[in-house]
Amino acid sequence: MNRGNKLLDYVKLLDSSIHVGGFTHSFGMDVHIAEGSIRNADDLESFMRCQLHPSIVRLEGMAIKGIYSATDHNDTWRTALIDKLVHVQRTPSDQREQAAAMGKRLIKLARALHPWIEFSQLEHTLAKYESVGCLSTVHAWINHYLDIPVEEAVMGYLHSAMNACITEASRVLPMPNETTQELLVRLAADLEHEWNTVSASAADGPAQPTSMSMKSLFPSFHMLGAGLHAYRA
């Protein structure tokens, strides 16, 4: 099976129509809808551009990139630390058990799809450092193992998250199908622009494994100070 087919099969697991593809949170969108601050397509587009896109790019997107770099250097400690950072920053405390279950479910589904992958390596890392295995971490590790370029892994995850939110919002907001499709096209372009901007600004020079700092593996981690020491791997 060639790499393209492997990626296509794997990306199906992130489809919002199945439970694991729905991600573990709505990035606050559901709260805004319930409170009435998101009432139509224009409100939704503003929320996605101003809040969701910057958030998922700087946290999940850069975490995926960081995990790729950590895995390249066989640095399991930093893989676990990035995973914990994403977990405590993104997931509300009352949903963390559910979030951990989502990552385990993705491992289970991917193991059935790709039985030759040595998932015991990832499971050992998570157990050794008492880490969680959140969705973006597992996604990054699987794609790295499949030799999927990091940019494809990041964009696959980000687009899946965006699509999941739009799909969920379209169920409760008065948006015709044509409006939804046009919104998806505009937001896809905006999301890619956001990622290209953030990724370029955080570009790292060559680094040796022995001298790599946390910033070189997760360039946006300095914005995520809360929980770093409390959840040290």
From TrEMBL:
<dbReference type="InterPro" id="IPR002639">
    <property type="entry name" value="UreF"/>
</dbReference>
<protein>
    <submittedName>
        <fullName>Urease accessory protein UreF</fullName>
    </submittedName>
</protein>
<dbReference type="Pfam" id="PF01730">
    <property type="entry name" value="UreF"/>
</dbReference>
<keyword id="KW-0143">Chaperone</keyword>
<keyword id="KW-0996">Nickel insertion</keyword>
<dbReference type="InterPro" id="IPR038277">
    <property type="entry name" value="UreF_sf"/>
</dbReference>
